[in-house]
Amino acid sequence: MPDVCIITGGAGSMGLGAAKAIGSELDMTIVVADVSQAALDKAVAELRAAGIPAEGFKADVTDRDQVAELVAFAAAAGSVKGLLNLAGISPKGGPDYRVSCDTVFDIAVKGTVYFCQAASKAMADGGCIINISSTSPFLVPPGSMQEALYPLATEDFERFLAEMHAALEASGDEQMARNNAYVWGRRFIIWYTEWLACQVGRQGIRVVSVGPGVVDGPMVEESGLGLAKMSAVGRTGRPEELAAVYAFLMSDKASYVTGTNLMVDGGIVAALHNMKR
Ligand SMILES: NC(=O)c1ccc[n+]([C@@H]2O[C@H](COP(=O)([O-])OP(=O)(O)OC[C@H]3O[C@@H](n4cnc5c(N)ncnc54)[C@H](O)[C@@H]3O)[C@@H](O)[C@H]2O)c1
Question: Is 186 helix (H, G, I), strand (E, B) or coil?
């Protein structure tokens, strides 16, 4: 049975780069999941052409049943050893600028929690889960991201969602609420990663979050380019620079790395701290 890695948002720019690195360096079969069938077909064809065993599965990460079907599909293809949760949309609300703050929040948060729950059950003999945070929670004051509500997510996830949605809707106009949805969701993912790592660590499962800086792709906007310019390295990141880190974290070389958030941001957060000194 081959080792399998599921990559959500796997047809996106970071997803495809990660699939190439993990598939080739770690000799894993890649199950690429995305909402876009056309993008999925293209990604799978590109991976197979590069000699990487790959399957595509169309799934919306906010739908718990589709997540369960996808994890079952991956488990039938081999031994599920990896999960990389990259599905997400920008705080602008995606290409059509029409989605609600709840959708921005849910794609990041439901996508992470549903997959972590389903995949950690399927990872009987250990494995690695990588969730995606961001620099954005480090750009706002700690304590301003509804942190007190996060423990509720582990007790009553539906109530947690309802309370977060209500707080988001009360937090400002549509664009402000979408921004907050992105930032609070990414802060929650860091919290949840730490919590989950302690639940599953004794089963040999590692859980890590990675905070990308401004990485080339459709999500990059003017404000992001400004941040990239003031970062330590003074430029945006390339998807393959993130992919190398995902592959390392997924490998046995990172066997003692869990329950932590690794910023791969070209020094954006460091530059902000420096400005305050
Ligand atoms: N690019 C950046 O600068 C940056 C920085 C920090 C964090 N991130 C996060 O990293 C992740 C990947 O970013 P990217 O630059 O590759 O973006 P991308 O837009 O290229 O890829 C995201 C993918 O997620 C998919 N997706 C969206 N909604 C989905 C859903 N409901 N179910 C399944 N798939 C869905 C999209 O179809 C797309 O293929 C995102 O979660 C993003 O928020 C990106």
Answer: helix
Inform me whether the pLDDT recorded for 45 exceeds 90: yes
* The model's pTM: 0.97
Q: How far apart are alpha carbons 260 and 253 in whole angstroms?
A: 16
Q: DSSP H helical segments within the chain, as ranges?
A: 13-25, 37-49, 64-77, 101-122, 157-169, 174-200, 222-230, 239-250, 268-276
Band of pLDDT at residue 35, cut at 50, 70 and 90: very high
Phi-psi region of 130 (alpha: psi -120 to 50; beta: other; left: phi over 0): beta
Which tokens go with 264? 């791969």
Q: How far is the CA of 277 from the centre of ligand 1 (A)?
A: 33
CA distance 234 to 226: 9
Number of structural domains found in the chain:
1
> pLDDT tens digits for 84-129?
999 999 888 666 667 899 999 999 999 999 999 999 999 978 999 9
- Whether the CB-CB separation of 2 and 79 falls below 8 Å is answered with yes
Q: 168 lies in which domain range? A: 3-276
Determine the residue of 42, 114, 215 to mutate for testing ligand 1's pocket, defined as the one with the most ligand atoms within 8 A of the Cβ atom.
215
CATH number of the domain at 91, please: 3.40.50.720
